[in-house]
């Protein structure tokens, strides 16, 4: 009888120890995963901030160019009635600039998509390309 009780107690203790160890391991793994996720999020946020700053810098540079182009004509502003045909040509140039901006925007979104895809695949230890 005593032997059985001892055996039962030992088994229970072993089971408890095993459960505790498993719980500890799970907690540690979860904490590590959370830390990794936080680091990735921080990196993504930093990258986004850098990209936004670059865009703002690019926008500031473009604004300065537009302001100076109107004043460098050398023509008098009183002769605007005679230059109606020239104004139409200038509008076409503005459309080209808008197209370039659209292209840049599309490229930006494309590369951000690829970057996010790459990060998510790395996160799950997957490859999205063939070796």
From TrEMBL:
Q: Spans of biased composition, class Basic residues?
A: 1-26
**Region annotation Disordered: where it falls in the sequence:** 1-101
Entry superkingdom: Eukaryota
Name the residue ranges with Acidic residues bias. Answer: 29-101
Q: What is this protein called?
A: Uncharacterized protein
Naturally occurring in which organism (per UniProt): Plakobranchus ocellatus
């Amino acid at each position: 009888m005593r032997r059985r009780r001892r055996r039962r107690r030992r088994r229970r203790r072993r089971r408890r120890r095993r459960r505790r160890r498993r719980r500890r391991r799970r907690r540690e793994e979860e904490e590590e995963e959370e830390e990794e996720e936080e680091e990735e999020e921080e990196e993504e946020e930093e990258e986004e901030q850098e990209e936004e700053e670059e865009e703002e810098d690019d926008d500031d540079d473009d604004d300065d160019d537009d302001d100076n182009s109107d004043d460098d004509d050398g023509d008098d502003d009183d002769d605007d009635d005679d230059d109606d045909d020239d104004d139409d040509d200038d509008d076409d140039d503005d459309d080209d600039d808008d197209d370039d901006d659209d292209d840049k925007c599309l490229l930006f979104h494309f590369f951000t998509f690829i970057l996010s895809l790459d990060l998510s695949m790395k996160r799950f230890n997957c490859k999205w390309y063939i070796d």
